Amino acid sequence: MATATEKHKPPLPLHSHRFLRRRYFNRAFAAIYILSFLALLYHHTLALSKETKTLVSISVSICLLIADLFLFFMWSTTQCFRMNPLVRKVFPENLEKVVSRESFPALDIFICTADPYKEPPLTVINTALSVMAYDYPTQKISVYVSDDGGSQLTLFAFLEAAKFGRHWLPFCRENSIMERCPDAYFSSNYSANSKTQHIKMMYEKMKLRVESAAAKGEIADEYISSEQERTAFSKWTPGFTRHQHPSVVQVLLDSRQDRDITGDSMPNLIYLSREKSKTSPHHFKGGALNALLRVSAVLTNAPVILTLDCDMFSNDPHTVQRVLCLFMDHSVRPNLGYIQLPQIFNGLNKADIYGCEFKPLFQMNPRGMDGQKGPNYYGTGCFFLRRALFGGPSSRVQPEIPELSPDQVVKAPITSAKNLTLANLVAGCNYENHTNWGSKIGFKYGSLVEDYYTGYRLVCEGWQSAFCDPERPAFLGDIPISLNDALSQTKRWSVGLLEVAFSKFSPITFGVQAVGFLEAHCFGHYAFWPVWSVPVAIYAFLPQLSLLNNMPIFPKASDPWFYLYAFLFLGAYIQECLDFILAKSTFERWWNEQRMWLIRGLTSYLFGTIEFFSKLVGIPTQGFNVTSKVVDDEQGKRYGQGIFEFGVPSPMFLLLSVAAIINLIAFLGGFLEVLRGGNLDGLFVQLFIAGFAVLNSMPLYEAMVLRADKGKMPTKTTIISAFIALGLCVMGSFMLRT
């Protein structure tokens, strides 16, 4: 019989949270900075009102005013993340004391891939195996793989993974393995014994078969070992192409029937390639996720969904339990719809030269949003309640057929003919016509960044989210190792973000009313990300061309207004640097992050903005491109050494090189002018800006002049850039002196 003390014993906590104390400093600093900017506006007004102004000087002043207004707007949106940062801690060790393991909810896991040559099948199956091996009831796990490339190679790789998984899953359980991604485990300092060597030999054999099949580009008869496998490939007829083919739904593992080598159930594993037609829109990754949402509803309909990129493998087998600590603690948030985990990247070099860690985006800013209504959805590593994708908490939207309802209980086995027929139907390319899919149901259409747009719309509908950031990273992903790939990725994001910024759901109009000022401006920071290109482009050229013509455009170093400019520049930079250091990063990584911010401003942000407005007026554009996950050995070696990779011709590199050359000419010219007794007091700010740009451009100068490897700047780009830079200097000199 329980004692009185035991009866009144408080329930075990599943999670705790605390607000960061530096929020008070952030608020005070923001107030001072705003007052300083108002003073800067007053200075701009004085500069424009001078009677002696010429047309050229007025134009220069207006350009600087525009640049500073854009800079202040974007700075103000970053402060919204700093007003109320929240840190959470979960206690998964208490979960099974509060909820029995048998009561854990079922989990559907969505993995998307689109091109077997840019996203190697071996990478994708490593991701799948890592989540199939979760320390979670296997009969409650269903892994769905969307292959938008419609490739036999991907299906073959998963047939091989299903066989290997029967050995890998019990091996992980018996040895309490933490790295349950096979490739990550065998690349670590694992303990070598006979069992480990045996499982490694099996993995290497599977790897060899998958890679040799990929090298041949087709699945020959020698790779097919059973009639069941032959049937699986039967839909690949001569007319089957990645852009025109019927839907393929293939159950590779059924938890009710398939067992591992110890007799325990295997998770469900389902391959999906939705129907494609050249005459029907397919909505890129958003369309693939909605097809997965419908097919999974028909076959398993788990109440919790995890979305993963194909290269984002699990690094912690207890991640689901950590997430359940938040979902099952009703004190977290009243309408908790999804939980986002940070994107952490595997293989970053020490300096993170391309700023691919995106520490503010994926780790720091989500804490700031968690102190309000919750972070955004970042496309991977996110757990949803299925119900959240079917309308708001108080405005549920029913799907067109009851089998897709989030409350529908699936009783038939996933291999039943009736369910598979329906699954193929809902994976059809015309199924969504005249339905609410993509607008009111599922992942939202209307932007290339379907993740950002979906998360934003869910919060606007009344759902809230939470940020779970455990000490051991839940997932580890790959990063681009060439500058062109890194910039192409952010250019695609830029187009999609502007599609939201200038839509009827714009965060600064619709968002302010739906989610409040601070949360809306956090979303607005991302939506208007590409407009960083405006001030960066102005400050990359205008002060330098004025410097070449000995034309001061900023206050003298002896003028009291100079200290205002110094405070605004140093204040923003020092605050950002301190945030990086406090987030357990390094000064070197912060420096490269700010360098990449400047580079993106002249490349991906600018070209993304141009592409968006081109689409707006009906000019054809490039569209969606998958970022390559294939690693070239030489590229990988240079990346590991911290050497920038330019190696391919690109218009983005051309503009970047032009800016670097003009800044170098301006700095050297201004410096020589000062040595000859020039006006250092009046030109100091311009000389500093040019020098700062030169310092950040060192990798460009090295790639243009000093390097001979394949990653150097293409010679043609260097020559054309030099001619354009000299032409701009001459033209600028003529215009500024006119």
General description of the model:
51% of the residues lie in helices and 9% in strands. The chain has 26 helices and 15 strands. Helix 5 runs parallel beside helix 6. The radius of gyration is 28 Å and the shape is globular. This is Cellulose synthase-like protein G3. It is found in: Endomembrane system.
Beta-strand proportion: 5-15%
Helix share, percent: 40-55%
Task: Determine Rg (CA atoms, Å).
Answer: 28 Å
Task: Please identify the structural class as seen in this structure.
Answer: alpha/beta
What is the spatial order of strands in the main beta sheet? 5-6-4-3-7-11-9-14
- Return residue spans where pLDDT drops below 50 for at least 5 consecutive residues: none
Terminal Cα span: 97 Å
Summarize the structure.
The protein is α/β, with parallel strands linked by helices and 738 residues long.
Offer a few descriptive terms.
three-stranded mixed beta sheet, transferase, single chain, 738 residues, alpha/beta
SSE inventory with pairings:
Blueprint: H1 4-7, E1 15-19, H2 23-49, H3 55-82, E2 86-90, H4 95-98, E3 107-113, H5 121-132, E4 141-147, H6 152-175, H7 182-186, H8 194-216, H9 227-232, E5 248-253, E6 268-273, H10 284-299, E7 304-309, E8 313-314, H11 319-327, E9 336-340, E10 344-345, H12 359-370, E11 382-385, E12 391-392, E13 395-396, H13 417-426, H14 450-460, E14 464-467, E15 475-477, H15 483-501, H16 507-515, H17 517-527, H18 533-548, H19 560-582, H20 587-602, H21 604-616, H22 633-640, H23 651-675, H24 680-696, H25 698-706, H26 715-737
Parallel strand pairs: 3-4, 3-7, 4-6, 9-14, 10-15
Antiparallel strand pairs: 1-2, 5-6, 7-11, 8-15, 9-11, 12-13
